[in-house]
Design brief:
Heat Shock Protein 90; ATP-binding; EC 2.7.13.3; histidine kinase; 280 residues; Sig_transdc_His_kin-like_C; nucleotide-binding; 9 helices; three-stranded antiparallel sheet; 52% helix; alpha+beta
Length: 280
C-alpha cells in the first residue's frame, strides 16, 4: 500500500480533526483565534503520531508524506494569517485588547510554521549527501547563524588544529547542531542559570565528538531511548511536536555514529554524539 494512502484517507474524511479545525476557524470570533491556534498545534501532533509505525523504510515515501502534511498545514496557517492581517487593516483603531489578540494569533501562526518546517525537515533527513568540508570555517558560519536565530549566547569549545576536515552532509551537520542547541535552550528557559556549553573535539581514535550541555531541570530517567522517538516530547502541549531529537538521531545514524545522553535534576542534561567523519 502507498504510504501516502493513510494520510490522504484521513485528509478526505469528514471526521478529520484538521478539517474540523479549519471549519471552526473560519467561523470563529477574533477572541477565539488564539485558543484555536494552540489547538491546531496539538492536533497536528496527534494526527502525525500514528504515522511512524505505518512507514516502511522507503525514504521517498517518507519525504512525500511529510511534504504533503507540511504543505497542507502551511496552507491552513496562511489562511489564518491572511484573515488576521485583513482584519487588522479593516479595524486599524481597534481596542488594545483586540490588537493584543492579533499579536497572539500571529505568534501562534509562527509556531505552527515552525512545526511544519520540522515535519518537512524530518522528511528530508534520510537524503544524506556527504562531501568534504573544513571544520573551522564551517563552525564560524554555522554557529554565528545559530546564535542569531536563537537569540541566545552559548559557550563554545572547538577542536585544534584548525585544519580538521570532515566527510559528511554539511546541511545535516548544521541541523544536528541547531536541534541540539535549540533543545538545550528550551531546557534552560525555566531556570535561573541559563547556561549552555557546546564542545567539539577530535577523539584519540580520530572521530568527531559533539557535546551539548545545559543546566536545565533534567529529563525523567524513565524516558530512556524513547526521547529519540519521532513525535515524543517532554515539553508541554503546544510548544513542540517532538521531532528535533529524532532528526538528530537519524543524522547520527546516516554517518554511522552514536548518540547518548546523561541527565539529572541537579546537573542538567548532557548529549554526546560520536561521528566517524574525520578525514585523515
Amino acid at each position: 500500500m502507498d504510504i501516502g494512502e493513510p494520510y490522504m484517507q484521513a485528509k478526505a474524511s469528514s471526521a478529520n480533526p484538521l478539517q474540523d479545525f479549519l471549519n471552526r476557524a473560519r467561523e470563529a470570533e477574533p477572541q477565539q483565534h488564539s485558543e484555536l491556534l494552540s489547538e491546531a498545534v496539538d492536533i497536528i501532533a496527534q494526527q502525525l503520531a500514528p504515522v511512524p509505525s505505518q512507514i516502511p523504510p522507503n525514504k521517498k515515501e517518507i519525504e512525500k508524506v511529510c511534504r504533503g502534511i507540511g504543505h497542507d498545514f502551511n496552507g491552513i496557517l496562511a489562511n489564518i494569517r491572511g484573515m488576521v492581517e485583513i482584519t487588522q487593516m479593516m479595524v486599524p483603531d481597534a481596542p488594545e485588547n483586540v490588537q493584543n489578540t492579533f499579536v497572539k494569533i500571529l505568534s501562534m501562526v509562527e509556531r505552527g510554521h515552525h512545526a511544519s518546517e520540522m515535519i518537512r525537515l524530518y522528511g528530508k533527513v534520510y537524503d544524506c549527501q556527504k562531501k568534504q568540508l573544513q571544520l573551522a570555517p564551517f563552525l564560524k558560519r554555522c554557529l554565528n547563524d545559530i546564535r542569531i536565530r536563537l537569540e541566545m549566547p552559548f559557550f563554545l569549545e572547538v577542536p585544534s588544529p584548525d585544519d580538521t576536515h570532515l566527510l559528511m552532509d554539511e546541511m545535516q551537520l548544521e541541523a544536528l547542531l541547531l536541534q541540539l542547541i535549540k533543545n538545550a535552550q528550551d531546557a534552560v528557559t525555566q531556570v535561573n542559570e541559563q547556561s549552555i556549553q557546546v564542545a567539539l573535539s577530535v577523539t584519540t581514535d580520530g572521530q568527531l565528538q559533539i557535546s551539548v550541555h545545559d543546566q536545565g531541570c533534567g529529563i525523567d530517567p524513565d524516558v530512556g531511548e524513547e526521547l529519540f522517538q519521532p513525535f515524543y516530547s517532554t515539553k508541554k502541549a503546544g510548544t513542540g511536536i517532538g521531532l528535533g531529537l529524532s532528526i538528530v538521531k537519524q543524522i547520527v545514524m546516516n554517518h554511522d555514529g552514536s548518540i547518548a545522553y546523561t541527565s539529572s535534576k541537579t546537573e542538567g542534561t548532557h548529549f554526546t554524539c560520536i561521528l566517524p567523519v574525520i578525514v585523515t
